[in-house]
Structure formats: structure tokens, C-alpha cells
Amino acid sequence: MRDYSWLYEFCLNRFGSKAALEAQLPQPRSADELRQISDDRYLSTLSLRVFRAGLKHSVVDAKWPAFEQVFFGFDPEKVVLIGAERLENMMQDTRLIRHLGKLKSVPRNAQFVLDVAKEKGSFGTLIADWPSTDIVGLWRYLAKHGSQLGGLSAPRFLRMVGKDTFVLTDDVVAALKAQQVIDKAPTSQRDQAAAQAFFNQLHAQSGRPLCQLSMMLAYTVNH
């Protein structure tokens, strides 16, 4: 298992300079910034992630203004009241992506957002306060309590809103295998915990956020 100094040197050699490397790396939002995001924006992004799954992102993004209109700006108090008949009618709306399962997930996730807000004060508080040292725990929480947030949807949603997380892309999984952290795709809690521990170790050595370490690891995989 290699340490951070090896990872940094590898990426530095790949990009040729520190400035070139740093320009490629994302910056997570601070806890205060995450708390300031309103519940309707979290619901919109949750829904956007659900619809992007398995579809070309540009197609979904082009249709999103219509989704914002049809779903009342993703105000969870209003969206939660949308019933089955209205969802069926949306299947005839050519402005939308007409996938009934994904459409049904929107009011379900509105209820999820409202439940969290009732307990925490806002959905952003949950996201902001969850420790990055157990980010896989947040993935599982979102998958369990939300709708259609399994697989990579939870970490990709977190990356979209700016919460610090690694993402187990094919390249990151390949890098973790090469470092003998795991021996297969980490779908089990045990393997996810092993991946988390490795990222926590890299973070302790470097002070870098998980999202940067995740991308740097992906760069070590040959294409």
C-alpha cells in the first residue's frame, strides 16, 4: 500500500507542475456553505441526480428548467403533495423525461427532505455536520432513507452539492485494487470501510479533502 507522498509525486509527474495539478482538483464547500443551501435546492439536486443516472447528463440538464416549473421549484412542502394522478399526467408531458419510477421518486425524496429538516432544522445541517471520516455512512443513510439513491447516486449527489466525498468510480476502484486496499468492487460495508480507512489515512498524511484524493487516485490508473 503506497502513501500520500507516492501519490503526490505520481500526479506531479503526470501533470508536470504543481499549478497544473492543482488546477484539475475540485474544492469542496465548507460546512457553513452547505448549511446555507436551501432545502428546495437540495431536493432539486437530489432529483437531478436520480434522473441523470443511466442517461446522458446534457439531455437531462437541458430539460431541467421544465422540471423546476412542473415541480414548483422543488419546494418540498408543495412537492410532497403531488399524487399518483398528477404523476401519471406528467408521463404525457414531452418537456420532461417520462420515466414513471424516477418521477415517483421526487415526492418521496421531498418527504425525506422534510423528515430530515424536522429533525435537524434543515437538510443542509445533516449534510454539513456528517463527518467526512465516515462519508460511506452518509451514503448508506441517503440510500436507506431516500428514493433511488443507491449505487453511486449518493456520493455523486454529495459531489454535486459540494460535500467532501470520494467517489468509487471504475478508475478509483482499480486504483484501490492496485494498492491492495480491496480485491473487488466495494459494495459491502466491510469493503467500503476499508476504502474509507485508506482515504482517511491519505487525508491525515496530506490534509487534502477526500474529493481531491479521489481524483488523484483515479489519475494513477493507466488509460
Summarize this structure briefly.
It is built from 14 helices and no strands.
List the helices and strands and how they pair.
Elements: H1 4-15, H2 18-24, H3 31-36, H4 39-52, H5 57-70, H6 76-79, H7 84-90, H8 100-120, H9 123-129, H10 135-145, H11 153-161, H12 170-178, H13 189-206, H14 210-219
Helix pairs in contact: 4-5, 4-8, 4-11, 8-9, 12-14
Largest sheet entry = none
Q: What overall geometry do the principal axes of the alpha carbons give? A: elongated
Distance between the termini: 21 Å
% residues in beta strands: under 5%
Point out poorly predicted stretches: none
User: Total number of helical segments?
Assistant: 14
Radius of gyration: 19 Å
DSSP helix fraction: 55-70%
Number of strands: 0
Mean pLDDT value: 97
Oligomer: single chain
Question: What can you tell me about this protein's structure?
Answer:
This protein has helices spanning 4-15, 18-24, 31-36, 39-52, 57-70, 76-79, 84-90, 100-120, 123-129, 135-145, 153-161, 170-178, 189-206, 210-219. The two termini are 21 Å apart. Helix 4 packs antiparallel against helix 8 and helix 12 (170-178) packs across helix 14. It is 67% helix and 0% strand. By secondary structure, the protein is an all-alpha fold.
